[in-house]
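R.M. (postdoc): so does anyone remember the format we settled on? I'll just put the structure tokens first.
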């Protein structure tokens, strides 16, 4: 018998369904699956699922300042988007460190191009992202996802905690921003440069000299591509407010 079947056959409900669900969700710091909630309140899984959907609809109809969402495989209360400015002001008041713009950009690249290596992220952003990636890893927003079969480089992806923090159930719900990012096929030269694999450029052909032409100006210094990854972030992805 499956875990769900066992939950569905509980004989005695331990509390009135909707108030019990609200009480549990109010104190939870993570999304709770329907099966887990059913096991706690002692109601059948389908009854709990229907109650959660009904509660979410009621909160929306009543214009509450919060809403009930199903995200990352579970249910959790969230403040409504229209009150984001007020909530942000309260949450960030007195906070010393938060993700920098550089860290947010790096996280966005990982989210839309995952699984992706650090070298590829560096090529897209045009800077070395090692410090920022360490920050994202330490905060649980990014995790390792194996190795590239060709280069052996470590690959990275976003975590379920990332989905929870932005309030979506899956990556399919991310905004349509991927078309605005560079195509990976167009970055092979930059990636080779990051890996130190660029071949030396052939010497320029000598141009025929004109009799009255002045002395040629010195050749300008070679500039790396802005996506060469030769830059370095000034910090590890946090800023002090």
């Amino acid at each position: 018998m499956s875990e769900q079947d066992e939950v569905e056959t509980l004989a005695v409900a331990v509390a009135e369904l909707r108030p019990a669900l609200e009480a549990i969700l109010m104190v939870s710091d993570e999304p709770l699956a329907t099966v887990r909630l059913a096991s706690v309140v002692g109601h059948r899984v389908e009854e709990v699922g229907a109650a959660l959907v009904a509660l979410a609809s009621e909160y929306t109809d009543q214009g509450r300042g919060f809403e009930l969402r199903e995200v990352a495989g579970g249910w959790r209360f969230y403040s409504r988007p229209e009150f984001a400015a007020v909530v942000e002001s309260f949450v960030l008041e007195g906070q010393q460190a938060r993700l920098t713009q550089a860290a947010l950009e790096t996280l966005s690249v990982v989210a839309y191009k995952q699984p992706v290596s650090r070298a590829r992220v560096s090529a897209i952003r045009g800077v070395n992202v090692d410090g920022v990636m360490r920050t994202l890893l330490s905060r649980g927003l990014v995790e390792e996802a194996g190795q590239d079969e060709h280069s052996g480089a470590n690959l990275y992806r976003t975590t379920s905690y990332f989905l929870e923090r932005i309030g979506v159930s899956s990556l399919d719900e991310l905004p349509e921003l991927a078309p605005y990012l560079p195509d990976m096929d167009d970055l092979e030269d930059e990636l080779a440069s990051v890996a130190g694999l660029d071949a030396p450029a052939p010497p320029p052909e000598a141009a025929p000299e004109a009799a009255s032409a002045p002395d040629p100006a010195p050749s300008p210094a070679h500039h790396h591509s802005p996506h060469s990854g030769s830059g370095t972030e000034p910090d590890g992805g946090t800023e002090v407010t």
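R.M.: ...and that's the designed sequence above, right after the tokens. Also worth knowing: The chain has two domains: 3-82, 97-194+228-240. The domain at 3-82 is CATH 1.10.10.10 (Arc Repressor Mutant, subunit A).
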